[in-house]
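hey m, so remember when u said the tokens were messed up on ur end? i reran from scratch. heres the input so u can diff it against urs
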Amino acid sequence: MAAQDVFATMPWWVKWVAVPLVVLVVFGGLIASVVGFLIALLFKVLVVVAVIGGLMYVVRRFTSASSSSRHDDW
């Protein structure tokens, strides 16, 4: 008897309520760890993007200011 046959004979509430609850109880910590890791990773990626963007802004600001002062010297 295959697992598909076993589930076919079960009531709907076993398939759609009991089994997902058992999976959440057994793997809930693992699921929470993975979701937490993904959220932390996304936050770190956003911080890196913001810092690199800020650095690019500052470098362009200072290089354009220094290049315009060089043109005034000529």
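this time it looks ok to me. The chain has two helices and no strands. if urs says something different then somethings off w ur setup not the seq
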